[in-house]
From TrEMBL:
One of its GO terms (molecular function) is hydrolase activity, acting on ester bonds. Keywords: Membrane, Signal, Transmembrane, Transmembrane helix. This is SbsA Ig-like domain-containing protein. It comes from Candidatus Wallbacteria bacterium HGW-Wallbacteria-1. Gene3D superfamilies: 2.60.40.1220, Immunoglobulins, P1 Nuclease. InterPro entries: Cu-Rt/internalin_Ig-like, FN3_sf, Ig-like_fold, PLipase_C/P1_nuclease_dom_sf. The chain crosses the membrane at residues 41-60.
Length: 652
């Protein structure tokens, strides 16, 4: 998908034949792209002449320059990417920390910048502007793209080959992304390259990109998608299976190709050979002197959606058959709404799995050690299978002090995903990591580090909580008198909170590496209210379970919150907080991040202590930005919670 017209005057002719594909896909959802209505080649001559003339005077240019890190137009890619990251966090908690800092930015920023830069929105991306890498974002299922232009795309490489092949001109292909991730100190570059790959996957959920449509300025799908600020992801949506990232893109592109129109492929008079989606039924509406017929189709999940809207004069008695060239087919806003609601979700679902496959290609992820994996003398490790076909071996390392690691075993069976360390002393903490070796890549993949404590021989008493305190309005910290089993401690059913102005519900538990400290996320608590928390069912590492509940008291706190953000000019933003905040935290520019990314160059706390004026680098008019704030402290010493953000529109 591309928000700028990069290919004025190009005609993409199609003589493809498409095989019937067996697509085992569930509900889909959208993205944006731009297509341009095809006309017979001779009719393009005046337009080509006009385009060339306008380009001479700088009115129209096939390649625009962009300020680094700024957007000239809204893009659905950023919306899709944010939704993908949110889904990944909710489905694979602990597998990847998107807030981790590396190379001066968060992981989420590196991935998102890669996605957006693949769209050619960075003026420093000479590769895209000089060689037209956007032409490599097209893939027609079961058809091999030519590189000599015979299929209408001059020097274009098939999108899947561009991502997964060995084309040396693509420095952000899958293989390079995985290699960069494995390199110590270069992991952020791997995430940036992953963003480029993720962009192409999102394009596979855009009809023009999988139906060889022309790429100009009037795609209704692109125009509609650009207006959306979110993706309607159902809470119970399922995810595709993992294992083959190329196959992921192939299946997604096949689904989009088979079930949705792009602008040019509704023009049967041009003798396109693409099969049309099969209409299930039609609904007739009459408005004024026109009769409207909405054609309905059904996806593989059994949902009906609007496929196209046919508009004919009331006096017209012709057929609505899509093969009839006299019938104008309209991809109207209501049709695009259904397209987006299906295709954007598919892009998120498949993007989420692509990120998971990326981690499992590059290395392995060690799972947290559960109570059932610990005895007084053994610790059992489990990890997710590495799926790189180039796999050679797993190497398990152990450390006592967290600094020096010694090799414990080497495993050459790729399907072996567990190992038990034995003859360990009781009541002792050990740390582990797994390195993955590959045949052709001399750089190893290094896993995360997990720690576990062996049980204590002769321990017959159950654990007990010793202290609970509110860290902010949605976070509690609970201390136990001894290390406890992770699965029971993180089970929110073992905690009951009463008291306070409003009911409070535990949502998520996370046990620290010491095995004694639990962080419990809850619904909102009210500052100053007294609460009671009842704890039960927690087990220690020797298997002793709390059979009698324990009740502790704590007081709610309410840290500052971001209430709103507003652009005062193209370089000034006013941020409103829920209460007065400290000058030191308010005026630290590192506490503010603006996305799409523009710099924060200054921060001034205004009189009253609850408003901050930010000086930013130049904003793009009309672009929707999101400001995220962290480490802000109120006058009572309470620190702002995570996820505090506000949106604003770029100033003029």
């Amino acid at each position: 998908m591309r928000s700028t017209a990069m290919a004025y005057g190009k005609v993409f002719q199609n003589s493809f034949s498409r095989k019937t594909a067996d697509l085992s896909l569930t509900a889909p959802t959208g993205i944006r792209t731009i297509s341009w209505s095809l006309r017979p080649a001779l009719k393009l001559v005046p337009l080509l002449f006009l385009s060339a003339l306008l380009a001479v005077f700088g009115i129209l240019s096939p390649v625009h320059s962009f300020k680094a890190g700024q957007r000239n137009e809204p893009s659905s890619h950023d919306v899709i990417t944010r939704a993908t990251i949110d889904m990944f966090i909710s489905r694979y908690s602990g597998m990847l920390d998107f807030s981790a800092q590396m190379g001066g930015k968060k992981v989420s920023q590196w991935i998102t910048e890669g996605v957006l830069d693949a769209e050619g929105l960075d003026e420093t991306d000479a590769q895209d502007q000089e060689t037209g890498t956007y032409l490599n974002h097209f893939h027609v299922p079961d058809v091999t793209r030519s590189s000599n232009g015979e299929n209408g795309l001059k020097s274009g490489v098939d999108a899947l080959e561009w991502v997964f092949g060995d084309n040396q001109s693509n420095r952000f292909r899958w293989k390079e992304a995985v290699h960069d991730y494995r390199l110590e100190g270069n992991r952020h570059q791997g995430f940036y390259a992953l963003g480029h790959c993720l962009h192409v996957l999102q394009d596979m959920a855009a009809p023009p990109n999988v139906r060889q449509d022309s790429y100009g300025i009037d795609s209704p799908f692109d125009a509609y998608s650009a207006t959306k600020g979110s993706v309607p992801v159902p809470p119970d949506v399922t995810l595709p299976p993992t294992g083959d990232p190329r196959e992921l893109m192939e299946i997604l592109s096949g689904f989009t190709n088979a079930g949705f129109f792009s602008t040019n492929t509704t023009r049967r008079s041009l003798d396109w050979s693409f099969p049309h989606p099969h209409p299930l039924r039609e609904e007739i509406e009459i408005s004024g002197d026109r009769r409207y017929r909405t054609l309905k189709a059904r996806d593989l999940a059994g949902r009906e959606y609007r496929l196209a809207r046919v508009s004919i004069l009331r006096s017209h008695t012709g057929s609505t058959d899509l093969s009839n060239p006299s019938v104008p087919h309209v991809l109207s806003a209501d049709v695009m709404e259904d397209y987006y609601n299906i295709l954007s979700v598919e892009a998120v679902r498949y993007g989420c799995v692509l990120i998971r496959d990326f981690i499992n290609y590059a290395t392995v992820v060690l799972e947290q050690v559960g109570a059932g994996d610990i005895t007084t003398s053994t610790i059992t490790l489990r990890w997710q299978k590495n799926i790189d076909p180039d796999f050679l071996s797993y190497s398990v390392f152990r450390s006592v002090d967290g600094v020096a690691y010694t090799l414990r075993t080497t495993i050459t069976d790729q399907n072996t995903v567990s190992w038990t360390d034995s003859m360990l002393p009781g009541n002792s903490i050990f740390r582990y990591r797994v390195n993955v070796k590959f045949r052709s890549d001399n750089v190893q993949g290094v896993s995360n580090i997990v720690s576990a404590r062996t049980g204590t021989a002769g321990d017959s008493g159950p654990p007990s909580p010793t202290m609970v305190s509110a860290l902010d309005d949605i976070t509690l910290e609970i201390q136990f008198n001894e290390p406890v089993a992770r699965d029971g401690a993180e089970n929110t059913d073992n905690y009951f909170i009463t008291g306070g102005t409003f009911p409070v519900t535990p949502l998520h538990g996370s046990l620290g590496d010491d095995g004694r400290t639990l962080t419990l996320t809850t619904t909102s608590m009210h500052e100053g209210d007294a609460y009671l928390i009842r704890i039960q069912g927690i087990m220690d590492l020797s298997g002793n379970v709390m059979t009698v509940s324990s009740t502790l008291q704590f007081t709610g706190v309410d840290p500052p919150k971001v209430m709103s953000a507003q652009a005062l000019s193209s370089e000034a933003i006013e941020v409103l907080f829920s209460e007065a905040i400290t000058t030191a935290s308010a005026q630290s520019v590192g506490n503010y991040v603006i996305y799409p990314y523009i710099g924060v160059e200054g921060a001034t706390l205004e009189t009253g202590g609850g408003r901050v004026r930010l000086k930013s680098s130049r904003q793009s008019p009309g672009i929707r930005y999101t400001l995220t704030v962290e480490n802000i402290t109120d006058l009572n010493g309470h620190v702002i919670g995570t996820g505090n953000s506000a949106s604003f529109q770029g100033g003029f």
